[in-house]
Amino acid sequence: GDSVTQTEGPVTVSESESLIINCTYSATSIAYPNLFWYVRYPGEGLQLLLKVITAGQKGSSRGFEATYNKETTSFHLQKASVQESDSAVYYCALGDRCLGYKLTFGTGTSLLVDP
Amino acid sequence: DMKVTQMPRYLIKRMGENVLLECGQDMSHETMYWYRQDPGLGLQLIYISYDVDSNSEGDIPKGYRVSRKKREHFSLILDSAKTNQTSVYFCASSPPGQKNTLYFGAGTRLSVL
Fold first, then answer.
1. Are the Cβ atoms of A51 and B101 closer than 8 angstroms?
2. The three-state (H, E, C) secondary structure of A13-79, written as one string
């Protein structure tokens, strides 16, 4: 079946340091995968951080970037300089452009940024 | 303000009791979802609702049922709760034309003792 594997947390990074959270996927039943990063801040629901629907393209938001790499089936999340406000749980997710609706989520990576 | 609201946020029940989790959204989204998340697992889809009285099973519907009588409200019901239904439950909605862009509630942490 379809699956998403991401960096196991918690991940602790000092403020202003760089960050990478790895995400790889397996899309055995999806012809046209779409890839997403969702973020959950403390006390809030998950919210869409960025999405990429075309292989080879890069998505960006709030200083975060992720490139959809079809060859390595990866969608790693990166940020050059994290802030304390980036402390949250990050979820990588896989969707189907054609069938829509159903998302396959990773387990989430808890990020703590030390001030 | 676009919002998905879940009530209650925390709930403790005894095995065999009935459980009602409620979800509301103020965006008039047609499609709504119930997910659960357990430690070490990703979010798992329980049910999808495409509109009022138009519900479809997700990946793990066993032991759950849903009710959607108004577009703004989507309820998850556990008849005779089991200890393995202890989990964090998330409700979500998505706008038309953006199937994979979900707006989530903050979650309900349910403990079944």
1. yes
2. EECCCCEEECEEEECCCCCCEEEEEEEECCCCCCEEEEEECCCCCEEEECCEEEECECCCCECCEEE
What is the rounded distance in angstroms from the CA atom of residue B26 to the CA atom of residue B8? 17
Q: Which two tokens stand for residue A41?
A: 């801040």
Interface test with A, best of B43, B57, B91 (most A CBs within 10 A): B43
Q: Do A108 and B42 touch (CB under 8 A)?
A: yes
Rounded Cα–Cα distance for residues B22 and B57 (Å): 18
Distance CA A111, CA A73 (A): 23
Q: Which DSSP state fits B100?
A: T
* Contact check, Cβ <8 Å, A45/B4: yes
Taking contacts as CB-CB distances below 8 angstroms, the residues of chain B near A95 are 99-100
Which residues, at least 6 apart from A32, have a Cβ–Cβ distance to it below 8 Å?
A: A53, A96, A97, A98
Quote the radius of gyration of chain B (alpha carbons, Å).
13
Tell me the pairing of strands B103-104 and B108-112.
unpaired
Q: Which two tokens stand for residue A85?
A: 């406000």
Positions of chain B with pLDDT lower than 50, given as ranges: none
Write out pLDDT tens, residues A46-72.
Answer: 999 999 999 999 999 999 999 999 999
